Amino acid sequence: MFVINCPYCGERDQQEFKAGGEAHIERPKQPTELSDDEWAEYLFMRKNIKGVQFERWNHAHGCRKWFNMVRDTSNDEIKLVYKMGEKPPLE
Amino acid sequence: MKNKYSVFSLIKNAFSYHENWEKAWKDPTPKKEYDAVIVGGGGHGLATAYYLAKKHDMKNIAVVEKGWIGGGNTGRNTTIIRSNYLWDASAGLYDHALKIWEGLSQELNYNVMFSQRGVMNLAHNLQDVRDLKRRTHANRLNGIDAVYLNTDEVKKFCPIINTSPDIRYPVLGGTLQRRAGTARHDAVAWGYARGADEMGVDIIQNCEVIGIKRNGDAVEGIETTRGFIKTKKIGVVAAGHSSVIANMAGLRLPLESKPLQALVSEPVKPIIDTVVMSNAVHAYVSQSDKGELVIGAGTDDYVSYTQKGSHQIVEGTLNAILELYPIFSRMRMLRQWGGIVDICPDASPILSKTSIKGLYFNCGWGTGGFKATPGSGDLFAHTIANDEPHKLNAAFNLNRFVSGDLVDEHGAAAVAH
Amino acid sequence: MSANLRVKSSEYIDETHRVSFKFNGKTYYGFKGDTLASALLANDVHLVGRSFKYHRPRGIMTAGSEEPNAIVQVNDKTNRTEPNVRATEVEIYEGLEASSQNCWPNVNFDIGGINNLISPFLPAGFYYKTFMWPASFWEKYEFFIRHSAGLGKSPSEKDPDIYDHRNIHCDVLVVGAGISGILAAKNAAKNNFKTLLIDEKNELGGATIYQNKEFNKIDNQSSSDWIKKEINGLKNISNLEIKTRTSVAAYHGYNYLLARENLTDHLEKKYKNNKVRQRLLKIRAKKVILATGALERPLIFNNNDRPGIMLSTAVKKYADFFGVKCGEKNVFFTNNDSAYESALCLYNKGIKVDAIIDIRNNSNSKIVKAIEQVGIQIYWSHTVVDTNGYRRLNNISIMKLSNDGMTVTGDRINISCDCLGVAGGWTPAVHLFTQSGGKLKFDEDNNVFLPNKYPSDQISVGSCNGKFNLKEIINELSIKLKEFLKISQTDFDNIAIESEEETSKRNIWLLPSDKAIGKTKPFVDYQNDATAKDIKLALREGFRSIEHVKRYTTTGMGTDQGKLGNMHALGIIADTAGVKMGELGTTTFRPPYTPLTFGTIVGRNVGEFFDIFRRTAMNDWHIEKKAKFENVGQWKRSWYYPINGETMHQAVQRESKAARESAGILDASTLGKIDIQGSDASEFLNRVYTNAWSKLAIGKCRYGLMLNEDGMVYDDGVTTRLGENHYLMTTTTGGAANVLGKLEDYLQTEWPELDVYLTSVTDHYATASVCGPNSKKILKKIIPDLDLSDENFPHMSFKEAKINNIKCRVMRISFTGEHSYEINIQASFGKALWEKCIEAGKEYNITPYGTESMHLLRAEKGFIIVGQDTDGTMTPVDLQMDWIVSKKKYDFIGKRSLYRSDTMREDRKQLVGLLTDDPNIILEEGAQIVSELNQNPIQMLGHITSSYFSPNLNKSIALAVVKGGKDMMGKKLFIPMEDKIISVTVANPVFFDEENKRLNA
Asked: Which residue of chain C has the CA closest to A27?
């Protein structure tokens, strides 16, 4: 069970959080302009990275804020958390 | 021809102190080229190779496995086998597998201990009742043996369940598939490996795929830790690591790999003689031939390749177990472990060609792939050999995520476990 | 019989306090402080159990939690029975009953022992090779396999005990209270770290408290005296908490550990009642110091499993700590010096030691010299080649080892003995370290795996880190502790230490015998009866990976999880396959370290605490009226209100009729309510619902359908515009939390530019829904000053009102098709409101109705219930609700998905009504629908989603989803049931009042 440093509340037990999958998949601004393939990419296709992954988490049983996390999925090490809307770190 | 396994061969070998048993499978060095390479030496991968050799006469093939065969989800699951799925496509797929299971020990000359002790699914609320009845009706019309049981019948079939109406989520009924049951997971991998090896398939362990070589829209071979292997057909059966392999070919899949946990108790004399599953409160239990209670916990909600999950998942499962089986309170957990399950958005698998010629994926089995092992191998072998899916796996293509024609098994309460 | 084998009083045994207990029905006596094992040994009982596969007689092997053999059923036939309990861990108490397992009729004469005779036919993996013919017989074979497997018996009654959880946050957790753990904890605590020290035993001090006094000295005192003083000193340290009888079960990532604290297992029955039996400590530690010690290894030789063959340190501990001699004629068999310390301990206590067999060629250690001086014979470079004695060891045969250790030479020497102390060296207990994700390295010199890379803020110290003599241990501890805790000094930095260093080493994983290996039984896993020849067979058959060998032979898979034999299994594999052990790796050590009670993991979360109950403000009234309840999510909702012994059907028919004929009242408090405010609230609703919201007038209500991004119906409900920038959304009961979560997700992550605030107000309001032709009159009585005219308060509108000065919100909305009002009031007034409605409605026979009647009434109107009539695969078009999908809106959640090739198919499953040809037949919800009966396979078109007998139409009605159903109006279809076929006709799903006249009646 991880300890997650919520950018709004500080360190809390993982039990208070919900994971929300891959981060920085922006909802298309003009979905009707997309082909079925492109829409499927947005809807379903995921990087599912083994290694450093950018993902979304929600402090569901706390401040209820969504935020981003950089985590290594091969060892569950959390590298960084940052607020929604903030630019992802380059590496 | 390998020595046949039987009670007579055991007795015969006893007189030579078992010094003369031959290898169940060889340990070959990879050849430079194969007609097809299966990536992943779990049950599904080995079965695929076995059926490619047996039914499609493809003998110059290899299974490459980064660790040891059967070491992934094959050796980590709770071994539940059933085919009482809701949708026609799923029912067709899983019952195809179940029919093969029924003769598998004899087919492989390897006792996979397929034990048809029945699988019961419990209903805990009125919608569960509706969903289970719906599934039972569909099963019956699809020729799958499933019956609906009322609470008393549930109690009769498995007397240790707490069917008191006063518990938090009382048992309102259930379904029973008698042909369903469990099998010995390791034996499935070993039996297929032995059978495939006998037909000339190279089973190459400790050989990790590190790249897929493409020439335009077609595959040319795989880079491995033991060198380059040329091949025109690659069948990827890498479960939790499917996305990792897909990434090497420049593909993305509709998968997320998540931790799934399970645990066993210390062994005790027979106390539960069937498999009982409860989706609503999340408690699955059976008892192995060794006497251990085998309990399946749930998945965590985040991607992880660590084969470790969170304690609260195990705790939640045991809460439900003790709610339904208060007599197990003093039993003790002997061992817990995790696997990595690749989950599709519709909780149904992918057995499909891809946009790259010669590259095939068999993945997305989520939490319930073990039961499909023989059928999955058979159908995937068909798909690879003919470059076309069999009608039983046609629905499980990749294009369904584009067209929207999903096989939504979790919407249908039959959560795949 | 029961000879008293007590040798000398021990400070850990209270000889003034005699304790009686039963073993296999016979009464024995021990003393307070005894374990079941020590008490049995004191009574000369060595035969304790039978092994798993061959049913061989087995005795007590160890004095700790690693015991593989002496496992018993305690308190059989009581509600506190427990299987597979290690006799070495059970502290005896008055009235304890224990019995042998896995034997019938009894442990002395066990029919299953026949397996030992046919064992040549039962090599590793034999079951994979047989029981396949005839195929139909597997079930019968399996019956016997299952009944001969298993060890103890599962309890069969409800557990009378209670369990508990405690969360602990500490700066430093020290696991293991041997000398390393004690010094580490003391120094951490004294340096202001909040420290927790845990040990599985009931005593602190580990092995140091019975260490040889002559050869181990600290500060010029014997180490045992010195450590006792240190232990006494711990009591006065304020921020140090000590937990004994507590076993750390699991070490997860982020320094999260689980430990089981045993509180009452050692107490008499009368002290157990109403007390917490075991507590699960959930520990989050900033730093962890593992001082888990080392486990003594056995030696692997032919017939090394007989009762009387024990670990050498166990023999010593029983003598020194418990004051019990394990045999009259003791022999030790060793590859290192520890057997000599054990032998010397016995000698000093006046227990006869006949010989020491040592596989080494010699040793110059002082302790060896001491043994030579007292005249105990040492057989250098000899090995045990066989042992005898079925129920108890009575003699051993030894032979000289060849130089390479592969064979034996010369003649057999037979030595009569009834106890053989075996010393095979030490295995550091790295289980917790590896559980935490730590990687091991192999130390070739000492043949041990040691911690290499720490995955979190932790260190391993003492013998679990490969330090085995006192001087090394303490010197290393001082250095590591200072670095780890960043402290400048410890209180033992320059303390004088004397200890013995081992000079001579020789390790042979599998000792040779004069018999061919095929004819021997050298056990590697005692409990599971896996022998070295099984391992060799597995390798011969091509199993190379250690995991394969483990699984094929079942080595290490018993209740001890291979604590004793796993290293030997690895060694034998390495030797046989010709690879280095370091390259072979280990099998994964999985939690828990020792088996963990289910009840302890669950704690209080059983029975009524399994899941929370959500109850409405009116709940007491429903209970008073003997309502039947239905679980909807966590809510308890009134299902129906039977009166005068009505069946459910009768009650529902009465309720549903009354609601249409006069008045009904429903507790609708459980529906999710989300308060939406902000200048972009309308735009937000435009994006989340399929229909348009901008033009909804203030004070009006509108029904909305919410999709998933995949185009499938997700939730529905009525939303009311309370003000320019203020809406109140209702959701389904079960969907409330998910809808709020989803809306927050979009708001925070996709549309942060929108000025919208969401607040769940589900629990803040109680809702009574009054419907029926007389609802208006009833409402008039409750809120006389509210103008209820259709002009002022039309259908789908909202008014603020006051009832006795209490503000409430009244919506004129309807889920039944009747003229209907929903009154929302602050939850604390919910029951009063309800009672007021009932009182006011009395003259109109206002009838409370539950969820079942609600479902029936809405089905008469063809209104869907999300989750019942939909299943995550239905679009609004499938539901024939095209009218609610805005064609004008550029986008809303899920819109794009409605235009994919599959979602646009004409022949998708569509919601229709069904009428049975026989109006008295009520279809079964879930039943499948077909159009052709003579197909193979039969093609299912869809299923019944809702089905009722309508008292208002006096016929059965059903909603169903049918492939291409939209175009099937009037078509005959069939419902093939198990015993009959029911014909039905496709109908309009609106069965009642199609023109909606009653809304304004």
From this structure: C750
